[in-house]
Amino acid sequence: MTEHPVLPAEESVLHTADEDDLYKDSGKIKKKYYKRELERLQEELVRLQMWVREQGLRVVVCFDGRDAAGKGGTIHRITRRTSSRVVKVVALDKPTEREQTQWYFQRYVEHLPAAGEMVLFDRSWYNRATVERVMDFCTDDEYREFLRSAPEFERMLQRSGIILLKYWFSISDEEQERRFQKRSNDPKRRWKLSPIDLEARERWVEYSRAKDAMFTHTDTADSPWYVINADVKKHARLNCISHLLSQIDYEDTMPEPTQLPERQTDPNYERPAIDSQNWVPALYGSNPPASDVERS
Fold first, then answer.
1. Which residues fall in a compositionally biased region of kind Basic and acidic residues (predicted)?
2. Which of 16, 24, 104, 197 is the most buried (most CB within 10 A)?
């Protein structure tokens, strides 16, 4: 078992590609290099996942930021190759009437990780300091109490052994407008654009003030905010994942390729006729012929 350093890594395109060839004229990373680097980082995430499970670690990662900043897309890339039994995503809806009467952090506590789990919050308890504050979904007293309580809550988590990381996805006014317009024009994305998104955009400056106040009260030495430049989605994903990997000490426990055992055979087993089963129509490709007996 050896330590597996992530940064710097000789396999990274930052080391293997010519810098003049790495980026387009626009300054964005070329697709082939993005895919290559993402696959490398996703392989590292699998190693991290194995270490978290084997060592019984508990990890919480908060993803917060304005609408359309790319939080969900980054989370999707993180979880694409990992197990949902180990790396879990939590995206809570607005609180129910019952939850509104509970301690504010209570509905988040029930989703905290057990040993060997990593929980990614797609918007975390910091909703109270941003969306709820700007949209008047909480009272002034509730808001002020949150700013006092959040650092204490996070210290409690860390004292219990939880590894806590907080990411803020920062997006410019112009880029958010472009992404909102793209959602509006695309029927496949239109569901992502809600009335609250539009109203929050109208209150851009209020949202900025709320974010600034949140950082003032909750960007602590023990639990700092890490800010991601999210104007270029691909850059944001790579930067966030590489930073996440660098923040947790883990070792490479990837097993060697497994030698598969020979398949069991039994000359006395007779498979039921294929045409006796209700097969889904093969609109693409074809179903096996009736003579195929090597399947179940």
1. 263-273
2. 104
